[in-house]
Amino acid sequence: MLIQRPADIPSSEITPKSVYLQRRQFIQNTLGLGALALLPEALQAKSSDFPCLKKSPYSTSETPTPYDKVTNYNNFYEFGSSKSAPALLAKYFKTTPWSVRIDGAVEKPGTYTLEDILKPHTLEERIYRLRCVEAWSMVIPWVGFPLADLLKRFGPTANAKYVAFETLHDPEQMPGQKSRFSLDWPYVEGLRMDEAMHPLTILAVGLYGETLPKQNGAPLRLVVPWKYGFKSIKSIVRIHFTETRPATTWGRMGPDEYGFYANVNPAVDHPRWSQKTERKLGGGFFSSLFKQETRFLNGYAEQVGHLYAGMDLSKAF
């Protein structure tokens, strides 16, 4: 999840799904929009679900990882521990209706529908690097809005020092939650309030101009581009404001391996592997053979480095 300074890149230039979109353009040019609407749905190439997306100056200029790779290589343990399990087992996951409970140190607690959550916000495209703690990376064109814009609506009190997020717990829909060797559910993650309010932190509802796929955390997920991917919690059903640091799922499972901050840092290795390099996915066969150097804070140090001034990030990892 690295970022470079402003690059206003139109989707047509950055989307590897070019053949897909060219097919739709051919149909439009040949038949006209009216005739297109009469075609059977199976014969229509899908257009963007978000046709009027605002472009973001925070987007990286790197080429996004192909859509098929982004949607078929996932860590979503609620649906299984293999990378292919989420795409296979999340097909019938129900994301409507959906609601999010807001509670804790906040002036306006309550349960809000997804429509309530999204209605006031302008969606934008954020092309971010994603760096997994497992030392692989992608570049993903998310669709979302700043988390800070949402949190401000609920009026966090002076006691709100942290914000915790919780994933849906529904073993009937999420078979990975039934496993004897699974995590301690529900999945919980958290941020310090200044991290949550930073403009780079977003809530995503889509990727590649389309509604967020179920295996990628539909209908609502967090994206924090300078942290390892496990911090970007999926399928959120609760946001809790608290004065104390929340106990996170991976932090409970492996406190010596998965710290609360989880900032991308090539100088701090995972106990079982190096974090100095990463394998960038989606660049073809030869690119997968060569590793690239990992950048401090995933390349976002200029934007977020001040959040950790004076901290020893080898200890506060």
Highlighted features:
single chain, alpha+beta, disordered N terminus, 10 helices, 8-stranded mixed beta sheet, 5-stranded mixed beta sheet, globular, 13 strands, 317 residues
What does this molecule look like?
The chain is 21% helix and 21% strand. It has 317 residues and is α+β, with helices and mostly antiparallel strands. Strands 1, 4, 5, 8, 9, 10, 12 and 13 form an 8-stranded mixed β-sheet that branches. It has a 5-stranded mixed β-sheet with strand order 3-2-11-6-7. The longest helix is centred in the N-terminal third of the chain and has 21 residues, at 18-38. The radius of gyration is 20 Å and the shape is globular. The protein starts with 10 loop residues before the first helix and ends in a 13-residue tail after the last helix.
Summarize the structure.
The protein is α+β, with helices and mostly antiparallel strands and 317 residues long. 21% of the residues lie in helices and 21% in strands.
Topology of helices and strands:
Elements: H1 11-14, H2 18-38, E1 54-55, H3 67-72, H4 85-89, E2 99-104, E3 110-113, H5 114-118, E4 124-131, E5 136-146, H6 147-154, E6 162-167, E7 188-192, H7 193-196, E8 202-207, E9 210-211, E10 221-223, E11 236-242, H8 249-253, E12 277-280, H9 285-289, E13 292-293, H10 301-304
Parallel strand pairs: 1-4, 2-11, 5-12
Antiparallel strand pairs: 2-3, 4-5, 5-8, 6-7, 6-11, 8-9, 8-10, 12-13
